[in-house]
Amino acid sequence: MDSERKQFKVAVIGCGRISVMHFDGILRSPLTRLVACCDIRPERAEAAAKKYGCKAYVSYEEMIAAEKPDAVHICLPHYLHAPVAQYAISRGVNVLTEKPMTISLADAEKTVAFAKEKGVSYHVIFQCRYNAASKLVKQRAEEGMRGGRLGKLLCASSFLTWSRSDSYYLESDWKGTWDKEGGGVVIDQAIHSIDLVNWIVNSPVKRVSVSMANRGHKIVKVEDSADGLIEYENGVKYCFFCTNNFCTDEPIEIKLVFEGGTAVFSYDEALITYADGSPAERVEKDKNLQAVEGGKDYWGFRHAEQIARFYEALAGERAPELTGEEVLKTHRLICAIYEDGKKHFSA
User: Fold this and answer.
1) Which spans in the chain are helix H?
2) How far apart are CA 338 and CA 341, in angstroms?
3) What would the pLDDT profile of 209-235 be if each residue is shown by its tens digit?
4) Has this prediction a pTM greater than 0.85?
5) Distance (Å, rounded) from C-alpha 37 to C-alpha 163?
6) What is the C-alpha to C-alpha distance for residues 325 and 132, in angstroms, rounded to an integer?
């Protein structure tokens, strides 16, 4: 490692399933030194501390006071994302939190403003933006707006058909709840495909019309299915469908129709075709990408890249990317989807 590069002291708050992606990314970065982790379940904190070589705590307040980390990673239930982020920010600690920012729009906006006031970085994980397929489509869409071959984006669609049984929800005391998770399939699973489309369209939302229902689950009251139309100020119409009632997790499909062609992509693959007969462009799944031990395929492989970029930005080596301000664009849309969808919600 370059001895002149700053190394940041890092701690992880929450040692549940998704934390493995954060521990992996932290240990890979030459800019980080993992000093601590915490979890309200002592046995889980101790197991993570032993595995990753750091100190264990059961209280994040105590951990922050004792270790004085430069940054914390928040891997907690959704309803805790904002209050824990705000606590860390109040102590001058930089924050990288799992999605979503929080449940409510007001809490998200408050956290962004508070981080700006305190002069600390507050970023949110949306690792799918770093997939090779996503990056290619985003690049070609931006080129199209500047006169490139694809031309102007006209409309978009996304489809997510996954499986989340009642037994999946029984494994958690917060999943599938309005007050702790903030909803169901939209805020937990489809949020990534919705974020990708919103990021590529890159225009303020004009109107949202949504239908949502719980059609197949007996033990939860949140939506397991949703569909809707999102209209943007730049004229793009985006239709989405998502459900957790399928028998397996199918690859998500996002389709974008441009004046000069189409782009169809999932998290791992992309195909761009051009109306003028230019050769199609493809991204195929990278077979060399290694899954993180304990990770899930549907989380993808790009947490480590986003984590590396977060610390490179802290070190002044690159511009910040998935900041709170940037992610607010998607959080506003997610909140608008729920606001409209709840009007005629059926459980």
Assistant:
1) 19-28, 42-52, 60-67, 81-90, 105-118, 132-145, 166-170, 185, 191-201, 303-314, 324-341
2) 5
3) 999 999 999 999 999 999 999 999 999
4) yes
5) 31
6) 24
